[in-house]
Structure formats: structure tokens, C-alpha cells
Design brief:
Largest sheet of chain A: 6 strands, parallel
Structural class of chain A: alpha/beta
Oligomer: homodimer
Radius of gyration of chain A: 18 Å
CATH topology of the largest domain in chain A: Rossmann fold
Strand order of the largest sheet of chain A: 4-3-1-2-9-10
Distance between the termini of chain A: 37 Å
Strand content of chain A: 15-25%
Number of domains of chain A: 2
CATH class of the largest domain in chain A: Alpha Beta
CATH architecture of the largest domain in chain A: 3-Layer(aba) Sandwich
Shape of chain A: globular
Helix content of chain A: 40-55%
Amino acid sequence: MPHRPIGIFDSGIGGLTVLSAARRRLPAESFVYLGDTARVPYGTKGPETVLRYAVQAASFLVEQGVKMLVVACNTAASVALPELARRFRLPVVGVIEPGADQACRLTRSGTVGVIGTEGTVASRAYDRAILRRRPRARVLSVPCPLFVPLAEEGWGEHPVAEICAREYLAPLIEAKIDTLVLGCTHYPLLKPVLQRLVGPEVRLVDSAEATAEVMASMLAADDAEFAGDRRGDVVFHVTDLPERFRRVGRPFFGAELDQVETADLATVAGRYSARAGRGLR
Amino acid sequence: MPHRPIGIFDSGIGGLTVLSAARRRLPAESFVYLGDTARVPYGTKGPETVLRYAVQAASFLVEQGVKMLVVACNTAASVALPELARRFRLPVVGVIEPGADQACRLTRSGTVGVIGTEGTVASRAYDRAILRRRPRARVLSVPCPLFVPLAEEGWGEHPVAEICAREYLAPLIEAKIDTLVLGCTHYPLLKPVLQRLVGPEVRLVDSAEATAEVMASMLAADDAEFAGDRRGDVVFHVTDLPERFRRVGRPFFGAELDQVETADLATVAGRYSARAGRGLR
């Protein structure tokens, strides 16, 4: 059986924190990463639009021959997972369920805070995923629209990040959460600031790490995990501005982004819509 | 001759500051506004992508029967103006030239600061437009990526905006600029903070107001300005999330956004590419 890669996609660079966690957890696996940088961000866009983009991105990765599809964008995972699982015959993992699962295992009081983009918070995907596991939990979600631009500006630990975080998190601290879900793949870059603000007794759930754990257990269950000790490869594709991706993405991935190629989703999606006999507009 | 509207487009809501200035300057004119909210922002995207989007947006407005096309997005104006003027047989106005023109009229020392998105600054469109008029000017441009999210968050006068502005503007203040061009249609919402930081002796150029002046003079020259005293209409189209547009856009427009419709650019653009016998991908 050939060594097929795992496909990961995000609206841009945020998903690199998921890829990074997955590489640490599954060093022998190879990965194909797709960042839809021509249409980033998804967080301020509507569900139909995000679903259309997600199907195009997934189609591209499936054409690359991936054995597993990881939706490393909270907004896309919150609206597109069932449709992707229906369309493509391979395991599909999102970032919401693993984060919600870990939050439910960590919380003692049952009062859980969730922070994310406007789109993710409005979708209430984390609230639903947590309440499904723990119906008596109290979930408080707040959107933090400035965290993504702050992380991309490299200001994740800048004083400005702390002022913004203090304002955004005030209602969560007030409500005495004991667990905080970082419901956006950009937010790991603000971890030290967030931990300082909520205090050491509040547990942070990094959905990138939680997702890597789920990927590992699914691969093991499937008996498809690559057993060799060769380090896997990573290839990056973006829909726009590979140079910016390389520069801004470095701290998200934690290493140089060597092989970045430009992808054209319009063509792939056209083929897929036609093949499926129906288009998503 | 029928009372044809003026078409204005932007990647999202920023262009509403241009529409607002144009409404004040030309109250009897009617307007069709298009915000490409499904793909906002353009500022972090590459020139080819932005050009493709701009042609689609302009095609949509031309189909609405507009008599003039206003590119109220600095990023789009910096890359797409010549192509739009070539493709469509109607006056095309961008926001760059009017702002550059006013800066050259206002500066005494010839040391001009320009602030904008990464895309606008990287295009050097303001630098070129100013140096063409005043070859011995000294132009310093800095990107301010956090200003757009701050303005959209309604934090244009928040302490965070002041800290960010202090950091971004430091090299311009150091260089003793006497004129500062707000090279992004979102930035008028940060005007009080910016003016306070650079001091009262530095002149701010609001490209929205400069553009409205140019529109007025082109209409007068063309003898097409509507002479009646009825107040013109405004219709808004967005490619995604009309509700968010209405809520976030209000402070940019300075009034309620009543009639917001959803537009599908993909169909329009398809027709246009076919008609022109060539596509922009």
C-alpha cells in the first residue's frame, strides 16, 4: 500500500497550528496543506459561501490522493463537515469535535468558555458539541475578531493583544469559567496572554492539539498509520500570495515553509460539481 | 435622458465612506453600491486575484446601467483602473489619484506620509501618483493591517487604536511628514486618533472626500449631473451576509442602510468573460 498523505485545509495560515501539532504527533506521516488565501478569512462569511469554498478545497485535496481530510478551519468545520463526509469516501476530521471533547473531559464545574471568530461563534457549533456530551454544561461563547489580525501581524504577545483580550474575556472571567476553548486555529499564538488573563487554574483547550490526537487514534484504528521511521514530507498549496504565506505562516508552523505552490480551486471545483451532477452554485 | 445612477464598488464596507462623501457632495445623484463581502478583504491578496474580482464587480455594476464607475477600494484602484477603463465605455474614477492630487496641493515641505493596507502599500500606487505630480516629493508609506479590523469592530477611537497608531506612525512622525494620506477607505473612522498623534499642523487627506470632489467635477464637465432637487436613491448589493453589512456598515455610511440585496458575481462575470472572448481565469 502506497504511503498516501493526509490532507489539511484552512482558509489561510491558521490551520498551520493544526499541521504543526499533527507533525509532532505523527512524524512519519506525509501531509498536503491547502490555504485558501485568495478568499481568507472565512470567519466573517455566511454558511452557504463557506460551504461552497470548503467543498472546493476538499475536492482539491482529494485529487491529490489524500487518505484523510482534516478541516483545520473552525468556521469551515462548523458548517461543512456533514456535507464533506457525505461527498468524499474517506475519513473527515474537523477541529470542533476534538476541542469540545477535550473541554468536557477537563471541566470540573461545567462552566466552559469558547472564543472564536464571528462565524464560528454565530454557528454555535461548539455549544452544541459540548452540550451533546454534557447536557448540563454552561457554555459561554464570545467572538474575538481582532485576535486573527493580531496573530497575523506577529502581535500575539504585544500589549495590544492583552488589552483586547481583557475586553473580550471579561464576561467569561466574570462567569468563572474553569475551561477555555481556543476555538480558532490562530489563537494558539495568543496562549501566554490568554493564560495570564484567565489565571493558572483555568485550563486552555488548544483545538490544534486535540485534533492531532483524534487523527492519531483514527489512523491507528484504521491500521493505516505509516510504520516506518522516515520523516514524512509536507507540501503546501495556497490560492494566492505564496510569499506572504511563507512569511506570515512561519510562526504558526514553527518552521520554514519550504515547498509552497499555487493552486487554482475554480477548475477543480468545476470538475467536481459536474461529476457529482450538481453544483453548490 | 434617464436619471442613471453612479456605481461604486469596494471589497466590503470601507467604500461606504466614499459613498457618504459623494452623497453629501452630489445629493441629487442616485447610487448603486456593491460590497464584495464574500471575498473581503482585497488588501492581503495578490494583484491578479484583485484584478479578477474587480472586473467581476465592475461588470455587475455596468449591468445595472450605471453612468460612472467608482472604485472605492484602494487595493482594487491600485491594480485594476487601467483594465477597467479599457473594458468599459464609461468614466472610471479610483480613490488613489484624487488623494494623491490633494496631498500634492497641501504639502509644503514635500514630505508626505501614506498609510494603507499591505496590498496598497506594496503596490506603491500612491508613491507613483504623488511623484508623477511632484517628482521631488519624499513619500513614506507604511502598512497598518490592524486599522481595518479595528474600524470594523467599532474601535476606531478605542485606546487600542491609539497604541497601534502610535506604533505604525512612529517612522512617519520621525520623518516629519507635513501631510498624511489615509490610503484606505476604512481609515476615516480613525481620524481623531490619527490627527491627535501626528499633531494639528499635519494635514490629513481623506481620499473619500477627495474622490467625491473629482466625481463632481467629472459630472459637471460631462454635463450629466442631475439638475433636479429631488434627493437621489441608494441601493446596496453585497455578495454575502447582508445583515452584517447593515450592522457594521452603519458608522461608515453615517446612516441606516435600508435596501441591501444579495448579488451573485460568478454569473455576471461568466457572461462578461464569454462576451469579451477572454477570461481573467
